[in-house]
Specification:
Immunoglobulin-like, 2 domains, 37% strand, 5-stranded antiparallel beta sheet, 1 helix, 19 strands, 8% helix, elongated, mainly beta
């Protein structure tokens, strides 16, 4: 009898040990849900460069972004790059060519979102640390040609704008090329050249000239339907010259220009 009870006790102990060592098994459903598409996508035009920005994804399983590009709107996009930051810089582009972009988000399970809203941009040349003097005293270095990207004489046939000082105040004056006046508008103070990303539809100076104010950016609408901008970076107390940086859109009738028929002044 005692022997039988001992055997039962041993068996009970073994059962308890087996139960305590049993592993729990969890069933995990596969993650097939993609993250949300990136929002707030916008671009900034550069020289042979396009800067792309969007809102950061704050989903817990977010992993990375993928950037796609195309030369045609609403067409099949080609994979370009991957990044974990909500921004991307596309370098070594052709100025005057329009590039289209979409962004997607990818989670840690490899699920990819749908495309973001499509954005496009047209890189253009730019220049920095240029100087022109007022035409009454320095006529040979008083003008600038955007399409030739060079300092010229104020009355040169390729001159787009020149520096004028009829009394004590400096003015940026526009020229007439092929019988059509260039237009100009003061866009006000800007922190840098990239702050102005588009040409306005209206508000052009009826006089054809504007006062030179350091830190201001000016948009020029050229006679042949291009747009340019320049930002005044420095003017000495003598008001003999101005230093500036500029950008010129080589693509005519670019969508950023929003062209309307030019009207004679």
């Amino acid at each position: 009898m005692k022997k039988a009870l001992l055997i039962l006790a041993i068996l009970a102990g073994l059962i308890l040990i087996f139960i305590s060592c049993e592993k729990k098994v969890y069933v995990v459903e596969p993650d097939n849900t993609p993250p949300s598409s990136p929002k707030g996508v916008y671009s900034v035009t550069g020289d042979q460069t396009v800067y792309i920005y969007w809102e950061a994804n704050d989903e817990r399983d977010f992993s990375k972004y993928r950037i796609y590009w195309s030369l045609d709107p609403h067409s099949a996009f080609t994979y370009l790059a991957t990044t974990t930051l909500p921004e991307y810089v596309d370098h070594d582009l052709t100025n005057g060519t329009t590039y289209y972009y979409v962004i997607t988000a990818v989670d840690f399970s490899g699920n990819e979102s749908g495309n973001s809203a499509e954005v496009y941009d047209t890189p253009r040349p730019e220049g920095h640390n240029y100087t022109i003097f007022y035409m009454q005293a320095y006529p040979n270095v008083s003008g600038f040609s955007f399409d030739n990207r060079t300092v010229v004489r104020w009355d040169n046939s390729i001159c787009d704008i020149y520096l004028d000082k009829p009394s004590t105040i400096l003015y940026i004056n526009t020229t007439k090329r092929n019988g059509v006046w260039n237009d100009i508008q003061d866009m006000g103070f800007t922190k840098d050249l990239n702050e102005i990303t588009f040409a306005p539809d209206t508000g052009w100076s009826e006089l054809g000239y504007v006062e030179v104010i350091p830190g201001h950016t000016y948009v020029i609408w050229t006679w042949d339907y291009h747009y340019a901008k320049l930002r005044v970076t420095y003017v000495p107390d003598s008001h003999d010259y101005m230093q500036f940086e500029w950008a010129y859109q080589t693509a005519p009738n670019n969508q950023e220009l929003k062209p309307v028929p030019k009207k004679p002044r």
